[in-house]
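Example record used in the benchmark description.
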Amino acid sequence: MNGFPGKGLLEGLAVTAKNFIGSYFDDNRKERLFTYQYPEERMPLPENSRTFPFLVYDGTPDQLRCTACKVCETECPPQCIYIVRDSDPNGKPLQRPKVFDIDISVCMQCGICAEVCPFDAIKMDCDFERSQHGRFEELVAHLPSLLKSNDYYHHIKPTEADRVDATRKRVKKPSPAAAAPAPTPGPAVAAVLSPTPLKPMSPPADILTEDEKRAWLKGYQSILGTGPIVWPLTTKKIATTPQPPTPAPAAAAVATPPASSLAGGEPWHDSGLDLAKRMELAKDRSLADRLMAAMAQLDCQACGYDCRGYANALAAGVTRDVTLCAPGEDETKNTLETLLKEAGKL
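Model output (structure tokens):
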């Protein structure tokens, strides 16, 4: 037996003490001193860190990006978001929230609300110091405490905020080339619609960010609405004489408004009217008109369409999902389902 009992233990403690004391004096060992004197000294947080959501506003708090479309409330896995839409003195709904609550005791910081928001209105914060003395009301974040400026967003996540701002500017101010009508095909090459233009397709390979994917999706869905088709879903190079492209029957059914709409307008397209009144105004109209009247009439595009585009898509059978109108909630969903069943389309 070499040495004495406990010799190995003492040798180990000596090595520990040497490294501990040396970390304060030896410049080559400074990286070993990893303890921060919190809260006086704080560790810098990486840009991709996330804690709880907040709502972004541009300029002043009354320029809130949130339109109260309720997509985040619908998609939240633990259902910790509660939204009530604001209204004017006459009872007409406004595109902003009156109540926006997040229960941070339930929030699991997954970030899905920020991913699904079509308006870049909700983002993930880096603030983790949210402890309170109470366990209930004190842990519910209300609208005033959730509001934070775009400057704050740039401060905590500069790279992501710059990308979001650039995307929002492109969407708000399309380039002249994008706004111009499609060129007439030449004699040798013509861009024509695919025979199956409504088949699901992937976004272009050069679109990488979620914001750019969302912008591309809105462009794709605009083909299903009432606006002019300014770019084809797919192109084929064929030798042909100049002639207008001929859309497939399904595409034409979705892109063209019903004759009744063109003739009589859309008197139900007023978010201040209740569902019963809107359905009364559309009772003698086409299926697409009645489907549109059942929607919330906000044209928020949270579903990827405007109200007319979504109605046309349902009527043409392009989609059978009646749950996309988040602002209309169950009232709209149930009415759409009833109308489609009566028409034999569901």
